[in-house]
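User: quick one, fold this
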Amino acid sequence: MSENRFTPAVIYRDPKAAIEWLERAFGFERTMLITSPDEERVLHAEMSLGGRGRIMIAGEWSERTRSPKAAGLNTQLVHVELDRDIDAHCDRARKAGGVIVQEPEDQFYGARTYRVLDPEGHVWTFSQSVRTVSRAEAEKAIGAKIYAKDWA
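Assistant:
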């Protein structure tokens, strides 16, 4: 088990295909997989990236848990922090069929980010720290006050 205190569960119509795509496109690794006795259905799956973080992958299991492919909208996105090579990561996602909705670009808070839609329409944001920015610099850049407990 992970030290994470919050773990997003991402719902797919076809979780088996999603797991394979997430491995190919984002480099996620399977850390747990529970299937039905006939191995046709994914009952529960967990994945991480480089041994860090955790997401759960599930199939649609009730009227209130649907893939964006079925519902036609997102109510959340998953944000993943990378250690390096964000532009190469974006290219990998694109080559795997991800739809890049925001190309990699530097942000005022010192990160470089991009956004991608997976085959079922989930929005994923990937970020990499590229420079250290003080809170005062960030406030000046956006013209607003920022409250952040641990940002000097």
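User: anything notable?
Assistant: The chain has four helices and eight strands.
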